[in-house]
Amino acid sequence: MSERLKARVLLLFGEQAEITTPYRDHTDPERVPIQRLIRETGIPREELAGAELVAVVGADGELERFERA
């Protein structure tokens, strides 16, 4: 069973995006490749910073995919 969480792109750093969720705040954000976010959400790179997303978390606790909020 998967869980859906609110997520936000805090900032872009090189080829990585820093993502906050209810479990990972700005002091310890999740790092995700920018190209993955573009592929999974369709949001252009220049619009990613500050974007509201939905993170789908799998049974193993890993982020399986991202969707537009």
Protein architecture, described:
The chain is mainly beta and 69 residues long. The protein has one domain: OB fold (Dihydrolipoamide Acetyltransferase, E2P) (Beta Barrel), CATH 2.40.50. The protein contains 1 helix and 5 strands. The chain has one helix spanning 34-41, and strands at residues 3-13, 16-20, 30-33, 52-57, 63-68. The chain has a 5-stranded antiparallel sheet, with helices on one face. Strand 4 (52-57) and strand 5 form a beta hairpin. The two termini are 20 Å apart. The mean pLDDT is 94.
Q: What is this entry, summarized?
A:
Helix content is 12%, strand content 46%. With 69 residues, it is mostly beta strands.
Based on DSSP secondary structure assignment, what is the total number of beta strands?
A: 5
Mean pLDDT: 94
Question: Unreliable stretches, pLDDT < 50, 5 or more residues?
Answer: none
Continuous helix count: 1
| Level-1 CATH class name | Mainly Beta
* Integer tally of domains: 1
How is the biggest beta sheet arranged? 5 strands, antiparallel
β-strand amount: over 45%
Looking at the structure, the CATH topology is OB fold (Dihydrolipoamide Acetyltransferase, E2P)
Succession of helices and strands: EEEHEE
Rg on CA atoms, Å: 11 Å
CATH architecture group name: Beta Barrel
Strand neighbour order, sheet with most strands:
3-2-1-4-5
Level of helix content?
10-25%
Q: Structural class per helix/strand content? A: mainly beta
Query: How does the overall form come out from the CA principal axes?
Result: globular
Distance between the termini: 20 Å
